[in-house]
Amino acid sequence: MKKGKVFVISGPSGVGKGTICAELMKKYPDLAATTVSVTTRAPRPGEQEGVQYYYRSDEQFDKMLSDGLFLETVDKFTHRYGTLQSEVEKVLSEGKNVILEIEMIGGANVKKRIPEAVLIFILPPSLEALTGRIKGRGSETEEEIRIRQAQVETEFDQAEPYQYFVVNDDLFEAVERVKDIIVAEGLKDDYRSVKKNFFGRE
Ligand code: ADP
Ligand code: 5GP
Fold first, then answer.
1. Which of 43, 147, 172, 196 minimizes the number of CB atoms within 10 Å of its CB?
2. 82: CA distance to ligand 1 center in Å?
3. Does ligand 1 have an atom closer than 6 angstroms to the CB of 18?
4. Rounded CA gap, 124 and 60, in Å?
């Protein structure tokens, strides 16, 4: 069984990461699986425990951290987020690719822990389009929108370790590009293992 790879999908808040991942899973269910992170923020209307996140208190998060359960964690927007090692391993053990929809500091930390991880940055077509999408989603307060807007340039600067950049203008196109990246990365191989498979020896 060919081993799955870890893909990180990041980008400014409201760029459409969640929408792209949901569409990708729907259209190509065998390609990859996403994981559910832990957060200390409150669920937004419509969000459910174990679906968008596992919602935990600061104290519970601290305990999980000291128990070494996280692949990476970040403090962001006054809340904490963390990727569970167990969630990643579960998907990889099924021979599937893992998609981590996380922010850039987390992405860079994943790359340090797992050098073969592939980092994909999603860009909005423009700053105006991004603000429009965040407002349109209607889940953040004016103050939260202001904080997230002020962070956009910093977020771009954090994209240095990213290897792929996909503009989410037309959703269909963006989903196809992310799919192409995952498929192409899966086709990568190295001479030694190809030769070993072919001849049945080193
Ligand atoms: P993120 O997960 O990056 O914070 P979301 O997936 O929640 O962003 O998307 C933010 C908003 O933008 C949502 O209302 C979503 O429907 C909308 N959106 C996503 N992709 C596009 C697109 N290509 N064109 C127009 N609107 C989009
Ligand atoms: P939101 O609060 O809008 O759901 O997420 C805020 C930001 O946190 C998004 O950029 C999202 O991708 C990121 N995020 C979600 N889960 C994790 C995680 O486990 N680790 C890291 N580093 N970022 C995360």
1. 172
2. 22
3. yes
4. 35
